[in-house]
Each structure stands twice: as C-alpha cells, then as structure tokens.
Predict the 3D structure of the following.
Amino acid sequence: MTDKNSSQPVIELKAITRVYATEALETHALQNINLRIGQGEFIAIAGQSGCGKSTLLSILGLLDVASSGEYLLDGHNASQLSRDERARLRNKEIGFIFQSFNLISDLTIYENVELPLTYRQDLKGPEIEERVMSALEVVGMTTRMDHFPSQPSGGQQQRAAVARAIAGKPAILLADEPCGNLDSKNAEIVMRLLEKLNRDGATICMVTHDPASARRAQRYVELFDGQIVQDEVLRRVNGEKSDNAQAVHQI
Ligand SMILES: Nc1ncnc2c1ncn2[C@@H]1O[C@H](COP(=O)(O)OP(=O)(O)OP(=O)(O)O)[C@@H](O)[C@H]1O
Ligand SMILES: [Mg+2]
C-alpha cells in the first residue's frame, strides 16, 4: 500500500463512460463518472440492479476498459496501457474480493493466496512465503492453509479470498458484494475483517446491495442508470475529512 496521504488520490476517474454495443442495442452502463478515491478511504458503492456497479468495479480493477475518459491509478495513466501492462499493474496494485470467492478448487488455501504473487517479478521466494503467511494470519486461516477450498465453510473461503487480495499489498481492495453469498454470521465476520483492514490503512471500495453494510463505510456513493447520483462522506478518515466526495445533484 502506498504512503500517500488522503489528499492525494489513489484513484482518479475523469469523465468515464462505458458503452456496451451489441447488434440490437447500445447500453450506456456508465456515463460521465468522476470519482477520486484517497488513501485510506472505505467507500461503499450502492444502487439498484443494472445501474453499473460491477462495470465500475471492473474498470477500477483493470479488468475492463472504459469507452472514453481517463483513469489514473496510483499515478499511472491506466487508460493508455497495453493489455500486458494492465495485467501487471492489476496484479500489483489491485486486490479483488468477489461474491463467489473465486478460489481455485484444486489448489490449497495456501497455494491460492500464493498464486498471484508468483507472477510478480519484484518478489522472491522467501518474501512470497512471508507475505502469504502474514496474510493468512490477518484473516485467521493459518490452521486451514493446507485445506482445499471445498473443505472450509463459505465464511472461511471468503477469508481466504481476502488473504489472497491483501497478500500483494495492493493500492486498493475492490470487493463486489463480498458478503452476498454468506449467512449473516459469516457476513459479519467478513465485514469486521474489512473494517479492521481499513483501520490498518487499506483503501477499500465495496459494492453492496445491503444498506446496513453500506452505512459501515466512510463514504457512500450511489449510482443510478450509470451515473453517480449521491457521493457523501459518512464519517472521517483517521480524523481527517475526505475532500474527495463531490457535490452531486441528486435526481
Ligand atoms: N458484457 C456486457 N454486455 C452488454 N451489456 C452489459 C454487459 N455487462 C453489463 N451490461 C449491462 O450494463 C448495465 C450495468 O451492468 P452491471 O453489471 O454493471 O450492473 P450492476 O449494478 O452490477 O447490477 P447487479 O446489482 O445486478 O450486479 C446493465 O444494463 C447490464 O445489462
Ligand atoms: Mg453487479
């Protein structure tokens, strides 16, 4: 994670659009999205089904490319990268947590956490091992590291996925409905884990349908029909007020 303070954005989106064009119709999934995310912020992205939340997260996570606009990630102009450069930057700077965990079933929990690090040219063997172990410790999964993903409960699988996401020390953690497949007890465990990571300095952007989860973030961004219709600071980051939230005309 970077040492930058909250006034320097980790992420800056300028006039981002995403149009999906099929033969029959054009979908404007995102329209004129302007968003600055500072170091240490915990942002909830909400809005009804189809409003563009996952599309936005895919662009933030360099899995998808905007149709127009500019994306700056930790000082890199992500809009101008080749596919390979994007993949490298993604592996280093982005940690993903998905609703369906997305662990690889024939690798152990340890190997799942280790895998993305093995593609990193800047990390050597002992450093990789140390990072995997410390990430597993943070989520309380060291005792199950030799298990395969089908053995632990859903909550434990998601904790393993969180370990995989944080092991690379990314600039930002992106979570798309991280509690969507969990019962309320495990959802609470994962939410508390995200809150703890954020208190320890992680920058988090979480998509959620659940208003109660959204209220636990520091900043609330709501989309409607591909546009940001609300961007509100709910509480301060480390005692400092984020100046990244923008005044948005509410529809
Ligand atoms: N690959 C695609 N091709 C065409 N249209 C797409 C594609 N992906 C998403 N869309 C459309 O873009 C819009 C935004 O979709 P997106 O998945 O981002 O919404 P969402 O807010 O994540 O919804 P949900 O809450 O149901 O997950 C929708 O109208 C969707 O149908
Ligand atoms: Mg979605």
